[in-house]
Amino acid sequence: MLPHKLAFFLLLFIPFTTLAQKQKPPAGGRLAIVVDERLAALRATPQLTGRLVRRLSRGRLVAVRLVRTGPDGVIFFLVNVSSRTHGWIQREAVVSPSRAGDDRRLLDLIRSSEGFDCISRARIFLDHFPRSPMRPAVLLLLGDTAEEVAEKLSKSASHRLNHLGAAPELTYYLNYTGLDRYNRLRITFVFDESAKRFHYDGSAWREVIRHYPKSPEAAEARNRLSHNKAQKPQKEQDPL
């Protein structure tokens, strides 16, 4: 290897099945997905003071059966979580692919989120709103956020991996535990060994260009790829 030449290594990609794909959608109503776990308290009655049945996690699939406005004006959905579990959940905690305007509402939530939360909600959007005209915007935002995260991961990995063992230094970085939860969201990073720096691999940007070439986001995506150092070895990575 020539001195000072950037050496990039693609992080091991393990296909991830999202929670939505692992789950069997509950029966009994319109499909909805939890996107704001801060509001996802499943209650026995349609009111904020109702007894807590359980708290639902982001990405959880539910079936909406009924809609009711609580005494404080908050709108609740009666949902099935499983064949044995049901309850009332605040409307703003979920989105439904069949409900007009929910793609816009989720996009607004994604834009107000940062880091892992932004990427996680963007993944829910991409998995459940395949025909939304807002997909290019979500893809661009996912890519931009992933590259911002890469910088933070680089710093945290460098700090935590300052005392290495007998294995090659590269392997410690490629196995850094901070990458795990992003890998599960199908976010792949590449590693610049000479600079000890992670970069996003650019998959979302390339998808914008490939599927939405005439969109305003496509021009932005091309600009991101032209400046992203992770793209230099792309010809070798494409067969993967």
Question: What is shown here, in short?
Answer:
The protein is built from nine helices and ten strands. It has helices at residues 19-22, 102-111, 115-128, 135-160, 169-174, 180-183, 203-211, 216-227, 234-237; strands at residues 8-10, 30-34, 41-43, 52-55, 61-69, 75-80, 86-90, 94-95, 189-192, 197-200.
Strand/helix succession:
EHEEEEEEEHHHHHEEHHH
The helix-and-strand class reads alpha+beta
Poorly predicted runs of 5 or more residues: 1-21, 233-240
Mean pLDDT: 87
Biggest sheet: strands, sense, closure?
Answer: 5 strands, antiparallel
As a percent range, the share of helical residues equals 25-40%
Got a strand count?
10
Tally of contiguous helical segments: 9
Distance between the termini: 23 Å
Percent of sequence in beta strands: 15-25%
Return Rg in Å. Answer: 21 Å
